[in-house]
Amino acid sequence: MSEWRPTDCHAHTRHSDGRLTVAELVERAASLGVRPTVSDHMSRAVAKGVRTVEAVSAYLDDIERYPVLRGGEFCWHDSLWRDLPPDTVRRFTHRLGSLHAVRLPDGSYVRAFTTQLPPGLTPAAYMGAHVASLERLAAEMPVDIIAHPAIAPPAIHHVALEERWTEELEERAVRALAAAGIAFELSNRYPVHDRLVRRAHSAGVRFSLGSDGHTREQVADVSGPLAIARRAGVLDEDLYDPERHGSRTGFYDV
Length: 254
Hints:
Elements: H1 22-31, E1 37-42, H2 53-63, E2 69-75, H3 80-83, H4 86-89, E3 96-98, E4 101-103, E5 109-111, H5 123-140, E6 145-146, H6 161-164, H7 167-180, E7 183-187, H8 194-202, E8 207-210, H9 223-231, H10 242-245
Parallel strand pairs: 1-2, 2-3, 3-6, 6-7, 7-8
Antiparallel strand pairs: 4-5
Helix pairs in contact: 5-7
């Protein structure tokens, strides 16, 4: 049996908003002893993303030429993930779903990178909408991983993570991911607090490692996420690996 290596399940290249070519990403991951993934943005809502069904196929044509796992990061609030034919979906080794925007009760959306909340929307109300959107993502999207599940807009960064996430919100999020069989990404760019990680681990949710790398310095750096997993008692070999644990792409099979 070959020696275990961490897998970076989430990294970007020039196919979307990353700075590296696929070949450069592969080289960088090898230098760090990490198994590489290419998982560029697949969304009409991302300016530099892969934005059409035809472009998704071309993206897969290219990355299939390299020794990488074939991922894609899809925005829940964008419809591209719904439009892909089953044959295209099956070419991915794994897919990630992201809450780059959350839906408010009135049907409007708030971007995850906004610096100012809409008038009257409190941080607590935003977090309620975040978890409600996460629950819908888990119920609707045939993805394997939720990327950076604790992402929050700069507008609420003044509230500590442990205060943003009440135990009731944590329970709801963990229950949704466990029921759907979606892995919880430990992100190197967007922090998560240990209490939520321990709660997810206790509920049997699997974890993935993600650099969410866009630059050479970021790509394949999963040391921080790996440390979080180890603090929670997650065994290295139990971390999500598309080749060992499979994919939910069969969601489309009938």
